[in-house]
Amino acid sequence: MHYFYIILSSLLLTLSCCGMSAESENIVYYTAKDSVKCEEILTHTFDSKPVSTTDVAKLFLGIPYQGGTLDREQTEGIVVRFDSLDCTTFVETVTTLTRCINKGTTDFNSFLKELEIIRYRNGKCNGYESRLHYFSEWIYNNQTMGIVEEILPDNLITTEQRSINFMSLNADWYKGITSDTILSKIEATEAFLSAQPFTYIPKHKVALLTKESVKEGDIIVIVTDIKGLDISHVGFASFVNGKIHLLHASSGEKEVIIDPLPLSEYLAKQKHHVGVKVVRVII
What we know:
Radius of gyration: 18 Å
Number of strands: 12
Shape: globular
Distance between the termini: 34 Å
Strand content: 15-25%
Structural class: alpha+beta
Largest sheet: 8 strands, antiparallel
Order of helices and strands: EEEHHEHHHEEHHEEEEEHE
């Protein structure tokens, strides 16, 4: 598949054949089909306002799952994919589209700027290490910027300390970790996250969640017990017959689906899923 490369700066958006960027600018990887599909969704007529994340997410049902969609290019840049998604890029893409639609910014350039804000630390793409690799930092960063809010039902949550170091322990698995400098910055992020209280809803309490604590379209963040890791999967809450189901890019089904099992039953079947966080997009 042929990709276009865009040089993106605060002042200019131009096409570049070589894919190189100046120090203060970013490369954007996309295809013509991606930009067309993006603007089709941005200008789609929805039944209600404001548009919810699940209104947008359901337009992706059946889109293929593809793992590692952000790690295929040698130079870190803003990747836009509408033909296939992993769980994180699905949540990021839908969140970005929803926010743009509700703000009335329905052009591709606005989508790119919003996506960069959501995906990168402090809203700025500045190399591989600036990407919000750990979803707990994704929540922290986007909450700081007023984009999301973590929902913490007092009667359901548990708090613990976690040692977050999966990436540094497995640095050989990440082709973006190309130097000791990048590794040290990843380790600094891990140290910061490890120092924060880690709060979540244990999976044996997920069935107690109600429409008063979880809203349609909230981001469901699945907590794992895999050593050194915080989060292993993300999707959106979608109510079916009054019960929360997961609307997500499923690695098992290889496409975007509304899981047939209620969330509590889905979690019970997954050995390493120990609970959830609930995050609300501020629209």
